[in-house]
Design a protein that fits this description.
Elements: H1 15-24, E1 37-41, E2 54-61, E3 64-69, E4 73-77, H2 78-84, E5 105-108, E6 112-121, E7 130-132, E8 138-140, H3 144-151, E9 158-168, H4 171-177, E10 181-185, H5 188-192, H6 199-205
Parallel strand pairs: 5-9
Antiparallel strand pairs: 1-2, 1-10, 2-3, 3-9, 4-5, 6-8, 6-9, 7-8
Length: 221
Amino acid sequence: MPPMAKLDTTPDDSPARKSAAKASGDPDSPSLNLTNHFLIAMPSMLDPVFGGTVVYLCEHNANGALGVVINKPTDMTMQLLFERIDLKLEISTELGFDDPIGERPVMFGGPVQVERGFVLHTPGKSYSSTLNVTEQVAMTTSKDVLEEVAQGSGPQRLLVSLGCSGWSAGQLESEIVHNGWLTVAADPAIIFDLPIAERFAAAVNLLGISPYMLTAESGRA
């Protein structure tokens, strides 16, 4: 990911600075942990991959960070994904899904491991490769979670993506300092319940500001 263009010149009392600082602390701190936070792309983020995105961070530590973009759909539906991995979608509306799950889009989770599936879902059963991020969000990368979804016994609140977003040690912190991202503690309802088109604005609203207040110089998160 290319470095961000402009250094922080925002006044300390700006709404974006105060709200973001309250949410995520000081990005210069070596103990900063943004696990279970949203990264909200700033207008200065001109990268075609991440511009306009919201990333849910599943893991952040001294070795780097791993997350999934939650508001960038692909052209692939869940039905097509199941067909490609030789699964038959057998669930029906009686099983509690508010919409036909086969018609849901598979998300673009990021440019890393784009042929691999990453499933955000509510915790419950542990699968072969599951990371429990919080009591409300888990991430699974093994096929068994999709096998259960296809049979109607898997988690009902889920987001399926191809690829993920990754940062090496110190890379994300540098991008935040250079106005690439705002950060805020995540709300699972934005991931699982809101229409895709509403997720960016809803994430920004968690900071107590409007998306229209964002500028390329709104300050670091």
